[in-house]
User: Fold this.
Amino acid sequence: MKTFRHMVVGALATLLVGFAAAARAQPDSAGPPLRVDGFDVEQVSQLSAGTALNFSLFGTPGARATLRIDGAERRLALQESQAGMYEGTYVIAANDRITAASHVTAELWLANQVTTAVLEEPLMLGTSTARPCDDCGVVEAIRAVDIRGQPGYVGAIAGGVIGAILGSQVGNGDGRTIAGILGAVGGAHVGREIERSQSQRTGYEVVVRQPNGVSQTRRYNAPPPFKVGDRVRLAGGAWQPDASAVPY
Assistant:
């Protein structure tokens, strides 16, 4: 009987240790969030081939910055000229189709984090803006986030059994019984937490900036049907792609 009990303890302990090791192996994505403090362009009088567009981005130092312009055939890498200041020049090519209405989106990368910013001012001097709509916006950021699952019963049962058996090995008589009960309770709690960590899934936080300057953050369980820089409209309580929306 003692041999069988030892076998059960060994098997369940191995299972619980495996859960714990896997939980520890998961990368910790937490850290100071990236920030963008400003995004500017030197406005030009025309957008013809050969025109130089000078951009400046201000934010977290030590990162990597790039930007894309609607209608441009290539991205532009910004160089960190001083701590937290990224600069770059895009020379319009003959094949580019950049217009006064082209959106410009910058991305700032550091380790496994990324944040974005949408240029608020037009590329051309004197460009008029259309009347904004109240339920429109521009997607500023899409971030993958870990969503912890609800604790289940498998880990609780496994942990509880292990805790009860190990606890019952302590003391004699009634003391052994009490130790077994306490071990079961503690083991069940540990098992549930380990199982919760193993049931994490990936969700997506979407940040949309509206014409009034207010940003809204919504969470999606699946990749949203749009990308950073897209114009969206609020429909049915959710953001939907809308190429006709003119948020600025």
User: Anything to note?
Assistant: The first strand starts at residue 36 and ends at 41. The CA atoms of residues 168 and 175 lie 8 Å apart. DSSP finds three helices and twelve strands in the chain.
